[in-house]
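Bug: C-alpha cell stream looks shifted between consecutive jobs. Job 1:
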Amino acid sequence: MFGIADYGAFVAAIVLFLAIPGPGNLALITSTSKGGVRGGLAATLGVIAGDQVLMWAAVAGLAALLLASPALFAAVQWLGAAYLAWLGVQMLRAKPGAKPVLHIEPHHYLRQAALITLLNPKAIVFYMAFFPLFVDPARQQGLLTFAAMAATIAVLTLAYGAIVVLLTYRLAERMRAQPRIARALEKLAGVFLIGFGIKLAVSK
C-alpha cells in the first residue's frame, strides 16, 4: 500500500510505540489533569505537531538517500532494525528509576507538548531508524509513500491521545503513577521491539 512494506506491521508498531511510557504520555496525562479534556486534546495536537516536524526532517534525509544510493539505503534499513532490537534490549535491562517530572503551565498545553516532543533527544534518531524499515524500495512512490506514513502516524496518535485523555479525565484517581504496571508495559514493549527488529531484518 503506497509503497509501504507490511502496512499491518507498520500500524502495529506505531500503536506499540505510542503505548510506551515516555514524555509524550506524561504530557497528555499532566495536561488533562490540569486542563481537563480540552487541555489534554490540545496537548495531543501538540504531540502530533512535534512528531510531524521530526518525521519530515527524517524523511527529507531518507528520501535523498534513497534517490542517491539504494545500496546505502538498504544499509540504513539494517542499521534501523539493529537499533530497534538494541532499544528493546535496553528496555528489558533497564532498572526501575525515578519518573521524569514535566512542568506544564496552564493554558499553553499545545505549545508545551510540541516542545516536549521536539526536545526529546531520542525522537529524531527513532524516526530515522523507524521509517526506512517500512519503505519498499521496489514499490515506493516517493513523497506519496512518506506522506501516507506520516498521515497514518498522525491519525493513530490522535486516536490514541483521545483515548488516554478520556481515560485520564474519568479515572484520574486510579491512573496515578503505578511503577509495576509501567515496568511490565516497558518490558513487554522491549520484547516486541526486539521481535520487530529481527523480523524486519530477516525479511529484507
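Job 2, same session, no restart:
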Amino acid sequence: MFGQYKHGLDPKGRLVIPSKLREELGDTFYLAKAPDACLKLYPQAQWQKLLDRCNEMPSSKLRALRVFFANVIKCEPDKQFRFLLPESFRRYAGIDQEVIFLGQAGVAELWAAERYEAEEAKYLNPENLAAVMEELGV
C-alpha cells in the first residue's frame, strides 16, 4: 500500500475506504490505535502475521499487549465501502472531519488531516527523503 488519500467523515461517523486501498484492505480488516496519535488499518493477512508473532511470545510479554488488543476493532465495510469510526478512536487520533489515509507498505494509517499535514511538513525535505531512499537501497 502506498499514497495518501483525503476523505471526510459522514454525519454518522463513517469513512469511505479510498478506491486505491480497497483491494489491499479486503473485506475484513482491523483498526487499531497506534503511536503518533494515529490509527492503523491491518488487512487480514497482516493481522494474522501479528497474531502468529503474539502466539510465539511468552505469557509475560503478552501482558503488555492488553492495552493494544483492547483498542482494536474488526471492520467489515458495507457495500458502499464505508466503515464506522468509533468516537473513542476519533478522539484518540484527533479526528473531527477530514482524514488522510496513508499507505504504509503492508498496512495503512489513518490521520486527522491537520495533524498529518503538520507532521509531513516537519519531515518532507530532500535530506530526509535521501536518507530514507539510502536506507532502502534505492
